[in-house]
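Before the break, one more example. Copy the sequence into your notebook; we will annotate it together after we see the structure.
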Amino acid sequence: MDEIRSWIEESPYSAFLGVKVESLDENAARLVMPYRDENSNPGQVLHGGCAASLGAIAGQAIARANIGAEGAPFHNAQLQVNYLAAAIAEEVVVDARLLRKGRELCFVDVDIATREGKAIAKVTCTVRGRMNKPTHETYVSAGDEGQADPGSMGPHIGSIPFIGNRGIAVEHMTGGTARLTMPSIENNLDQAGHMHEGAVLALLDTAGAMSGWSEAGMGPYKASTASMQIQNLAPAPAEPLVAYGRCAENDDEIYWTDVEVAAQSDGRVYARGCVLYRIVK
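Here is what the structure looks like once it is written out:
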């Protein structure tokens, strides 16, 4: 348990978020994260990437406790994140419980709430221990057409604290498509020096949102991620990543976006997902 606690609290990414372990065993875990401006959207609202990260971290903690160190490396092969309410300048508490353990897979249920009990997000995880198997070569993304038009909103995205602290930049953001990049800076890494899964989820979430905004256009709107379904195909390497987002459909309020996160060097995909984004005009 000490090793798992160290992995959570000493990984540069989760340490930057301020995540601490209150309790941990094979069946349950409780984590806490204080409010920090660095983790926020405008208005001191907790960024959705933080909530997704907390679900992924808690899910991995339970799996690591059950499967053991011999199961490494670990990754959330699948996550479903439902955003229930906003946390505004509030500490959040993460309660995770084991649903079922297999030889290589653990199914984990995660609730994220404020200390006062307001439900913030519900996450379900399917965590895989790769059991020291060689990392397979994932498929190569088709990418995009190489456009480089960040639109009117793209240049300002980095001013949002959580996004700016990830180093996320918008290279393209028009016509329902978006391309974002994220560097392998220390605060995006885990304890082993790999790209932290939480940072990957944050990039995917942001790319999905920007794809929706690129179709809706700027305006005095209210917007938030309603849910995400994400598949991590393999642990991401410690190298710059690129996310390709595309708005597949919208009904002028709900935007269904598809996202791939790949290595910039060779285009191999490490995460993909669907983001359900809501923009109220």
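The mean pLDDT is 95. The two ends are 48 Å apart (CA to CA). Try to locate both features in your own notes.
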